[in-house]
Design brief:
- The structure is a single chain.
- By secondary structure, the chain is α+β, with helices and mostly antiparallel strands.
- It has three helices and eleven strands.
- About 3% of the residues have low confidence.
- It binds zinc ion.
């Protein structure tokens, strides 16, 4: 669907949710489920709805984010496919969007990482260089946006003391594995403005 199409869909959904909440006359349960449905739709269309994701590091403002998509990495052997959010070690990493923890993985580049799959499996949100996981975090666990899932660190190829979160988002087909899909620049939907390059 086009960007305009997603925007129109989002407006219609918000309108429907508002109408639904009027009909329910203070039924908190109905209102909550209507809001959840709208959020699910927005989450599904995240790349075309600027600012819809939660900034995944506690205490970091959208305005402070820097677009590092496409920067040279690995001595120029590859382009950066994500955003680096600088923060002190141990700062809580929170889920940018709701989903289920699909994979907890340790790799040479990413270090300690988390892959969260969106409810309709259309997106993977990736969190890397963590110092550790939130207590009890496990594969299959459902997380809500804003929930603490780990802590900022410098594991993998971040470099000692270069504590930051590497966050990326990948468009996936429903049948794709956690290692598949097409990376998309997360900066616009995190910062609420167009990519800086
Ligand atoms: Zn990075």
């Amino acid at each position: 669907m086009t960007k305009l199409g997603w925007s129109i869909l989002a407006i219609i959904l918000i309108g429907l949710a508002a109408f639904g909440s009027m009909l329910s006359f203070g039924s908190g349960e109905h209102r909550a489920s209507a809001v959840a449905r709208v959020q699910a739709k927005l989450e599904q269309s995240a790349p075309d709805n600027a600012g819809v994701l939660v900034v995944p590091v506690a205490g970091v403002q959208r305005a402070a984010l820097i677009d590092s998509w496409g920067d040279a990495r690995g001595g120029g052997t590859r382009a950066h496919h994500g955003i680096d959010i600088m923060a002190p070690g141990g700062t809580p990493v929170v889920a940018a969007a709701a989903g289920a923890v699909e994979k907890l993985f340790h790799s040479n580049l990413g270090g300690t990482t988390i892959y969260v799959r969106s409810p309709r499996r259309g997106w993977i949100y990736y969190y890397a260089h963590l110092s550790g996981y939130a207590p009890g975090l496990h594969e299959g666990q459902v997380v809500r946006a804003g929930q603490t899932i780990g802590y900022v660190g410098d594991t993998g190829d971040a470099g000692p003391g270069n504590t930051h979160l590497h966050f990326s988002m990948t468009r996936t087909g429903a049948a794709d594995g956690w290692w598949q899909g097409q990376d998309v620049n997360p900066f616009p939907v995190l910062a609420g403005k167009a990519a800086g390059r």
